[in-house]
Write a structure and sequence with these properties.
Strand content: 15-25%
Number of helices: 3
Radius of gyration: 12 Å
Shape: flat
Largest sheet: 3 strands, parallel
Distance between the termini: 27 Å
Structural class: alpha/beta
């Protein structure tokens, strides 16, 4: 079980992205569709991604997120300029 890119289940809620799940999938990056503020992903979830070294892309921070591949390399880009 592996994924280059993981779309965070249930907008990155705490129970949807467990450590065993993330270790099994070992994504190269995670995308979280969220509106930010109180509706953003829990800090606990964001820390989990950080501790596991998984780059996080968020629609509330990075805008429209585009994933492209040339068949070998996967590239993730956002429309908004944000500190990551």
């Amino acid at each position: 079980l592996h994924a280059d890119i993981l779309i965070a289940p249930h907008h990155g809620s705490g129970g949807s992205c467990t450590r065993p799940f993330l270790r099994a999938v070992a994504p190269g990056a995670v995308i979280i569709s969220c509106s930010g503020g109180r509706r953003g992903p829990p800090v606990k979830t964001l820390r989990k991604f950080e501790q596991l070294g998984i780059p996080v892309w968020r629609t509330d921070v990075n805008g429209v997120i585009t994933v492209t591949s040339d068949g070998r390399k996967v590239t993730v880009r956002g429309t908004a300029r944000a500190r990551r």
